[in-house]
Amino acid sequence: MLKRRIMIKLSGEAMAGETGIGIDPKKVKEIANEVKEAYKIGDSQIGIIVGGGNIFRGKLADEMGIERSSADYMGMIGTIVNALALQNSLEALGVQTRVMSSINIPEVAEPYIRRKALSHLSKDRVVIFGGGTGNPYFSTDTTAALRAAELGASIIYMAKNGTDGVYDKDPRKFENSVKYDNITHKEILSNNLDVMDSTAAALCYDNNIDIYVFDMNEPGNIKKAILGEHIGTLIKNG
After folding, report:
1. C-alpha–C-alpha distance, residues 187 and 238, integer Å
2. What domains, with CATH codes, occur in the chain?
3. How far, in Å, CA of 140 to CA of 149, rounded?
4. Which of 11, 36, 179, 197 has its CA 20 to 30 A from that of 165?
5. Half-sphere exposure at residue 188, Cβ-oriented, CA atoms within 13 angstroms
6. How far is the C-alpha of 50 from the C-alpha of 76, rounded, in Å?
7. pLDDT digits (tens, 9 = 90+) for 111-128
């Protein structure tokens, strides 16, 4: 069976649970179980990009007076910490994984090499990408779009922390906000909708990569999203 290739983008804050800071072992185990259920479907090669907001945030950098490049590198290191935590939880469940890092840290993770990543995916290993793009000034959203383009993924599943799709305005601030079931990349870019940063959105548009936005806090939603159930918002070229 020819398997499709997909990327799952996880926020760092989701790994911290209710506190939003640090790593909550229980929450990481829950996420690992969700990924395992998606893996068991058996029709996809899975790559995962993790954020680092639970380890280090831009707001904290501003308060400490840390310049942007240093702050971004600190955030990238945070994504590696999260990747290793998720790897260990997945392997405890019997799922073969590899962590690949854009920052050279060979004692704990393989360096990101495109052909090596493709080899791991072809062997049905879940590949977890840490270290962002390896460069400052780029978000983990951009990392997800870049890895999806490089590795030929057809879709990015944006597992949001408490947001169940794309709205015309912030649903936490406006009661009359409207949720989209489907929307185009052009509409996301032209209306400045807060889904992912503009660089990531443009990369997905240029490379015809679909995005599916859903709430990962509902049990079973990662599997439901991959199975095509209508629980969020699909973004694609019109």
Report:
1. 9
2. 4-236 (3.40.1160.10)
3. 14
4. 36
5. 29
6. 10
7. 999 999 999 999 999 999
